[in-house]
Amino acid sequence: MARSDHDRRMAEMFDTIAPHYDFLNHALSAGRDVGWRRRAVALARLGPGETALDVGVGTGDLSLALLAASDATARVIGIDLSEEMLRRARRRADAAGLGARFTAEAANAQALPYADGRFDRVVAAFAVRNFGDLDAGLRQMRRVLRPGGRAVVLELSTPPSALVRAGFGLYFHHLSPRLAALLGGDPGAYRYLPRSVARFPGAEELARILGAAGFGRVRFERLALGVAAIHVAEP
Ligand SMILES: C[S@@+](CC[C@H](N)C(=O)[O-])C[C@H]1O[C@@H](n2cnc3c(N)ncnc32)[C@H](O)[C@@H]1O
After folding, report:
1. For atom 21 of ligand 1, which residue has the closest CA?
2. By the 8 A CB rule, do 59 and 25 touch?
3. pTM score, two decimals?
């Protein structure tokens, strides 16, 4: 798998936090991430025989929720840079009785090893923010999506209101690394979190970038006053 220095650092960081990831994720988002994924799943549900690609699958939360909500013959392939995350995703799919419909593969979002138009859906939750090259990753997601397919991207975002931004910024910059350290995670990794959100384009800008990556129709919904957003992008 081709990897830049950024990708190597990402894989190392997510390998390190993998054992605590689920717990910390729910704790740091006060459980909101579960409802946000549920909304993304409703927008991406698969019909008979359809297949989705879950980019940056992590421990598999989105993939498993999508399979559970989709037709019993639908399948999901989850990819990630982190072997630790992939191992956990596989184990969880097996435990949930979904292993036969789920495959976890090591791959880089910026160089997807799949044919053009291979997938009915391409989904990503809290993953695209981590790409070393966002444009390249989104272009790849567009490339592997079939005509008439749909990409659903759930990601943290920048709230449009200055007041909400200030409150959220305070929480993120000061509280989350301390909370993460307290709970046994890697505070460095959770310091990365607010920085990565601050660097990431806002919802309107992300919609524009998705358009530039080759998606013809793009819309988005803000969640929790804009702390997160779901973009729906179609060819
Ligand atoms: C914050 S986790 C989110 C995991 C999961 N989607 C969820 O909803 O909990 C982001 C994941 O994206 C992966 N990732 C980051 N950059 C990637 C890339 N270029 N290609 C593939 N996976 C990547 C990381 O290794 C990590 O497991």
Report:
1. 80
2. no
3. 0.95
